[in-house]
Amino acid sequence: MTVTAMIAEDEALLAANLNSELKALWPELQIVASVADGQSAVDEALRLQPDILFLDIRMPKMTGLEGAQALVEDWHTGEKEFPLLVFVTAYDQYAIQAFERAAFDYLLKPVESARLAASCARLRQRLKTRVLPRNDSGALDDVVRQIRELLTSKTSDASSNATDRSAPDRLTMIQVSMGSTITMVPVEQVLFFEASDKYVRVVTAQNSHLIRTSLRELMERLDPAIFWQIHRSAVVRCDAIASANRDESGKLTLTLHEHAERLSVSRMYADHFRGM
Amino acid sequence: MILFGNQTNSIWRTAQVSLVTIVLGAWLYSTIFRESITEDVIYAFSVVTLTQLLIAAGRYGWMRYATRSSRGHRATEIVRPAWQWSAAWVILCVIVGYFLGVHLGNMIIGDPEVALTMTTRTRMVSLSIATGLIPAMFVTFYYYSVSRISRIELQAQTALRSAVESQLKLLESQLEPHMLFNTLANLRVLMIDDPRRAQGMLDRLIGYLRGTLSASRAKMHPLHSEFDRILDYLELMAIRMGSRLHFEIALPPALSDAPCPPFLLQPLVENAIKHGLEPQVQGGRIYVTAKLEGRVMILRVRDTGAGLSGASTEGTHFGMKQVRERLAALYGSRASVVLAPAADAEGGAVATVSIPMPSASSASVTLKGTP
What we know:
The complex is a heterodimer of chains A (276) and B (371). Chain A has 276 residues and is an alpha/beta fold. Chain A has helices spanning 12-25, 38-48, 64-74, 93-101, 113-131, 136-161, 215-220, and strands at 4-8, 30-35, 52-56, 84-89, 105-108, 173-178, 181-186, 190-196, 199-204, 208-211, 227-231, 234-237, 241-246, 252-256, 263-265. Chain A has a five-stranded parallel β-sheet with strand order 2-1-3-4-5, with helices on both faces. Chain A has a five-stranded antiparallel β-sheet with strand order 10-9-8-12-11, with no helix packed on it. A three-stranded antiparallel β-sheet of chain A has the order 13-14-15, with no helix packed on it. In chain A, α2 (38-48) runs parallel beside α3, α3 packs antiparallel against α6 (136-161) and α4 packs antiparallel against α6. Helix content of chain B is 63%, strand content 11%. Chain B has helices spanning 7-32, 37-69, 83-109, 121-174, 177-193, 195-215, 223-241, 266-277, 314-331, 360-367, and strands at 221-222, 245-250, 259-260, 284-293, 296-303, 336-341, 349-356. In chain B, the strands form two sheets. Chain B has a five-stranded mixed β-sheet with strand order 2-4-5-7-6, covered by helices on one side. At the A-B interface, α1 of A face α5 and α7 of B.
């Protein structure tokens, strides 16, 4: 069985070098693609389903961490096992601590040959144990847990770091500008927020508005006890949820009290919904 | 006497002031007027308590009024009333407090004749108030001085800490580890593949590092040195980013020796790359220019990147804040930095720094002979 790998690195020289060093250290390894931004990394990884994915952290469009989260959310179960992730970063002490806590492989740039060789040996070992028959969703659950750990330790570091940021000032009104008028939407009327490209869709029982912001910035100013993230691109007000239904493939879907739209819950956030 | 500050702190201080005043006042009274110390303690207690309550009520009323009229500001930023008003209010409180307090004391002791008689009223009252006021003023002044000294000390410490912090941040941003290690990673690759280019890159890195170290010592350097450092930085970034980065830098010969704070433009160029070009897969261009408009030197860093409406504004604010603070420290209100969307079709952002030019003679004196 050939082992396939993919490289996501925005600096061309570094990508080419990682490629050639990997070839020298691990001749059987087949490098199926090399991409230069986070979005392409996710798209190509979903398409090519490599065994190993080397992910740079700082990349255009999507960071390596966001890419890993998107990949976990969109990965099709039952086809192939989730790639082994290896994060590559030049310097980011918080990220490194987070990788270690979440037990992810990582490489520091400049990548020393000895370090890369050790990493390859470990990857080989892990692929060998993986060949043994194993429950697919179990392996994916492990990655989900790892990434959740990574994201939470990242945010806790960020919040303890921001000493000068006083208590977050909670958003009470959302001001939607449309041409020359500004519509005021009270936060408590919002059923859910949905990110789409550079905009966030604000959905109330009657209306839907577009605001030009990122979901991440918006979430910093929302009460996390009331607004639950259910997908990397969706946040829902918890008391707007009528029910959560799980289909045969294990996919969770929410129905709302005052809106016909159904929202899907990604496996990253599925643990919000567990019967009492 | 009206002290603003931490709520519990000020209550505690008021209680201390009151207690010492009561004891001192009662002792003075009983000595001067040869009265019973117990009764005087009761009088002093009721007078001081009522006076303090009146002062506190006035302070509370002012706070309510000031908060309402300056909505949006934080409580600590409330404007204090003019000292004349405070003083007038305190005097009024003392007089009213005195009469009410004596009345209250009479009621407690049950003897309406003790303190005042009709014939000696005016003299007695003024003497009595004076006797009460002396310890009160003394004690208040003491506590006021103590809190003032500690406040001044705190201010001095904060100023020192923020100065050290900003210097550290400046150095850290110049020697940004992410930039340094990524550059080294590229060098490591080029050493094998293209030794000549590796050497060129190493020369740029050496120039950049040398510039960084000398910049932390000098207060000013000639503009051509500033542009040389930016060229080093952009050349390093160009090797890393390849075709995603194009740049042009233009320094008119007339401005080549104009004094410039070292590494002033660095955070602006860094922001143009980090927030302008890096988020875009196709990259973009950066222009760094200088020109003279009257007696003002205009430095511009312009990119054709993602523009300002993008999500990551936090870092931009930090870089801008750093430049703004340095300009304010060096030139006061005579210099400025403005970040705005670029006006033409290429888009992106433009940061404009305006620095006053020194008169021709002083410029040549400070910088003549600098290589």
